[in-house]
Every structure is written in C-alpha cells, then in structure tokens.
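Box S1 | Example of a co-folding query
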Amino acid sequence: MEKFVRLKAVAAPLLRSNIDTDVIIPSREMKGVTKTGLSVGMFANWRYTDVPARVANPEFVLNRVPYDKAQILLAGENFGCGSSREHAVWAMKEWGFRAVIAPSFGAIYYGNCVRNGILPVVLPDAVVRAIAAWVEQNPAGNQVEIDLPSQTVHAAGAAHAFKIGEADKDMLLEGLDPIGVTLKKDNAIQAFEARDRAQRPWVYI
Amino acid sequence: MGRSLIDKLWDSHVVADLGDGAALLYIDRIFLHERTGSVSLQELKKAGRKVRHKEHVFVTMDHIVDTFPGRGDKTLMPTGTAFITATRAAAIEAGLNLFDVTDERQGIVHVVSAEQGITLPGFTQVCPDSHTCTLGALGALAWGIGSSEGEHALATKTLAVTKPKTMRITFNGTLGHGVTSKDMILHLIGKYGAAGGSGYAITFTGPAIASLPQENRFTICNMAVEFGAFSGVIPPDDITFAYIKGRPYAPRGADFDKAVAAWRELKDDADAVYDREIVVDCADIVPTVTWGTSPGHALRIDGTVPDPAAAPDATTRASMEKALEYMDVKPGQKLEGLPIDAVFIGSCTNSRLSDLRAAAAIVKGKKIASSLKKAVIVPGSTQVKRAAEREGLHEIFTAAGFEWRESGCSMCFNAGGESMGDKWRVVSSTNRNFENRQGPKTRTHLASPTTVAASALMGAIADVRKLG
Ligand code: SF4
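Box S1 (continued) | Returned holo structure for iron/sulfur cluster
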C-alpha cells in the first residue's frame, strides 16, 4: 500500500453534506470485476453533462483549472456515506486524490480510505469552510499542507490539529499490509477459537 | 459500571487489544454477494492466501442478477454476467456455501442470512455491503465493510476495529394506525439527520421495539447505516428466539436451549451507560415520506417541504437547494397528492412476507392507477416468494396491476441494467433516495410498503391512513 506522510497540494472544495458513494462512483460506472479503470466514472453524474458521451460539465469544480489537479478534496459532513463500495476510494485514488478533509465521514468509506493510502482528515465544519474560502481566493497558490506525523493541517494561515486512530495512522505512515500484520497474531486467533468453541459451540458448524 | 448490549457483543469477540480503543475482533460469519464478493476472493487468491473457515462463509446472488421470471445468468446489465460467473467460480473454488441463482435459498443477502438461521444472537457478522446492519435486529453485531476488509476477514477470521461510541435510542409508546417500523426509522433520521448516528453503534430498544414482530425489526436496523451509524442492534427476546427456532443453520434440540440460555444475557445491564441517549415518543410518528436526496430529508405525510432559507449553515443550504432542484419540489409544498410515475416494493428494508402481506391487504380487489408506468414487487428471497405464492399474494398483486418478480435487489439500485425512467417520480419501499439510485435522474421518495401500495392506487403520494 502507498504510504502517506505529508502532502502539500491543490485542494478542491465540494461543500455539500451527505455526498454518498453512489455519487462518487455511480453503480453504472462499475462495469467490471476489477479495481482499475474507475476514475473516468468518478462523480460521473456531476462531472459530465452527457454521461455516456463523457461531455465535461464546465461548472463542476474538478473540471476547472487548477482543481483538475487537486489531490485534496474539501467536503461537507458525512462524506462517503451510503454504499460500502470500495470502488469509490479506488476511483478517487486513481484520479489522483490523496486526502479528503471533511467534518465527518461514512464509517465504511473512512476505513476504505485508510486501506488504500488515502488520508481522511476530520476537521470541524467551520474550519473546513474557512479553508475552502481561503483556497478559493487563490486556488493554485493557496495550497493545503497536511502533515500526518504531527496530525496537522496548515491552511488559511493557521495550523489545525486533527485526530486519527493509532492503528490507522501507522498503517498510512508505514504503508503496511494489514492482513500480514494480523496473521502474525495467529496464536491469539487460535487461542480465541479454542476458548470460544467451548462457550459457543453453535458458532462452529 | 454495568455493561451495555454493545459492550457485551464487543467484549465477547476481542482476540487482541490493539490499544487506543481498537481491538482485533473475531468474526463469526462472512457473507458475500456477486457485486463486491468476487473482488475480495480474487485478491485473496492473488496474494496466495486461503479462506480461514470456509464453512462460515456464505455467498448469494442478488445485486446484479435479473429478477424477471425465468432469469438465468444473462443480465440486462451489459457486463453483469461476468460478476455472476466470476463469483460462482471463486466461491466453488474456495469451497464456500453458495446460494446460486437457481438455489431455493437464494435471495437478498441480509434477508436470507436471517431466514436461513445463519446469523444468530451474539454473533459478529460482516459483508462487503453497507446494509449488513439489518442483522443487528437478531442481537448480532453486524456491519458493512469494503472489499479489502472483506479479504482481511476471509483470510484471518478477524477485523481490526476501533470501538464506536454507543448510543441508545428508546422508542416509547405505541404506533398509531397506518404507522410502521419504516416510519419509525425515517422519523428518527428526519429528526436527527443522516449523520445523526455518525461514530456510534446503536441499541434500539423500548416498548415500541419490543412489541414489533421480528420481521419489522429488521427494517429498523437496516437503516441504521442511513443514520450514519456503524451498526444498530436490538436486544434479542422470545420473539427473536421463536423466529430462529427450526431455521436450517440454527442449533437444534438441547443445543438450541443451551444457546437460548446464553442469548438471554444479551441485554443492557440495569446500570449500563451509553455515550448518548435519545428517546422517541411514537405518538409523534405518522406515515413518513422523503422529499429530497438523503434519507435525512424525511417528512411527515401531512407536512410541507422545508425551506433552505431556514438552514443552519451554507453547506446544508446548498445541499437542500440541490435536492429541491433534483427532486423538482418546492419549499412549502405538500408531498401528499404529488403525481408519481412508478412504485417499487422490495429491498432488504421491506420485502419480507409480512411486508408483502401488508401491501396486499391494501391493494386487494383494487387496481393501481392507470397513469403508472411501472409497478413492481420483488420478494426479498426465493423462500419469501414461495410463501407468498402459497397464500395467493402474487395473484392479488398481479390482479391489481403489479409485476411479480423473482427475488433480488432489482431496482433498489441502478447498475446499468433494469431501472426506473428518466426523471420518473417513484415511491419506493427501499432505503436510499440518492440521486440516480433507481435510474437516470429518477426521483425516489422513500416510504413504507403500505404507503407505497396506497400511492400506487392513487397514482400519487398518498396518506395510507385515509384509505380506512
Ligand atoms: S436490496 Fe438494495 S440496499 Fe439491500 S442489499 Fe440489495 S442493493 Fe443493497
């Protein structure tokens, strides 16, 4: 998995609440049984005026310079709610996003980000809006800087601290393979099963 | 300090403490479907890893498979067949329990998992599908995950999870005439917002929950994720145990009795402490329909569409304005009487036998409005379909003018196969009114199956209470 340590990049404001994963990657854009080739379908219903013909909607933020090179997305509360589809994260990663800053996230989407090297940053709604307003003054120049080791976002003339779970932080910083990490605890899993089998035999069909 | 139901479910599955509130949790059951399941299985194979307990892993075909009578592997969705055949091949190769397209146990994943007795009280269960929380209604901690976490669960039988905060939602009082468990959950989400449960695992409890039949409880937990919650659970009781008894994968005889004795402990201790408490009085709940593009945009059937001018902040206002435009409704407008193009009864929210019975009772001997372009009923499982047909419900529906389908997710979502039409206004018993969810620019109004049935008769959004 790709590591995330720090990043200074163009941030694109998409300040709406409850942007769901059906919006991020519509079902119709998930055509194959793979993780790739999804970025062209990202935000398809907002990004194109004619979806099948891929006619870009000039109004949509990610179609405008310099936001078309954004690596950070600024969003409203509950970003990535809805369907569990990891395709939402695969599409955003493939497109070039490395971080999303929002007041809150859909829980499954949040976990999917961490497992794909995208950093989800939780900051209060007012702070996200202040950063967005600052970015809009000079989108190419006013780049947002995120430092994961110190858990800080530098933007709008201030340092904003954010929280992240230690396990998630380590996974992102080290680019670890979570299955490999867990398999090192095989003894503990076996011990649990032995104990549990006696207590809840109906689990072990 | 006493422990809550959620604490008990959590504690009994901790394999290792990972610090900072996180733990490696044992996962009792894993379910996969053809939409997201094959990716997990393929990636696992690519990495040279094996499924740890294949007998604990179940696979069904529901999301992409067509629901037309006589369906097979061929789908209206152009690349759909590949999802079905890839999932089948991967499931067979890994030796998993497969409920294939023509299997009598086939159906929507969260419907069949309960119906077959696969999910039991006290279990942890995951599926790469956000509505896995439905199964919390059996007193299990069940939640949706992504494909990568699916791969992790398959390989290790565990997941690393940070313990969510806990919330208890107590429903007091009794439900009024025409009010269902769907209205209870829509009312809650409408009042506290689609992010109201964000960061929490929720226990739904109180007299109004305890008096719900088991099937109607699934509807409540199903939409916990639409409330932003990690999951939702309902303390199991005698209604739950009676529901489980005799189901194919449930323990039998003395084993069942032993299990029930353990399951009786799955409740809040008297002094259990939650991080947040919400109390809802069911006297405040009437049939509820959504007006916008988030389940949080829920409205009393006798209410009016809210005005974004009253929104607390700019982000909310912008979201509301976008929803008004998409749905083609205006602030101050009543939903009741709004003409509709189509209706849909189905999905893991409301497609069980009791849902179909309730809808049939409303349309029996009547005809749906001739203005409707589509009216479809999709049973939640092949078993539900068989049971409904034994009672003659299918004849009531077809005589009224509905299409009667094979089981599956169908038009709960639009994957590029069958869908509702461009800009159609649809009243639907499903759980998501997201943009384009049921079809291109389709305008979805979420409601209970009885409200859907009543609206089908009127050809407009209807107040089911006025049908007598
Ligand atoms: S019925 Fe709808 S919500 Fe339920 S699992 Fe299928 S697609 Fe998802």
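The two ends of chain A are 35 Å apart (CA to CA). The CA atoms of residues 77 and 103 of chain A lie 5 Å apart.
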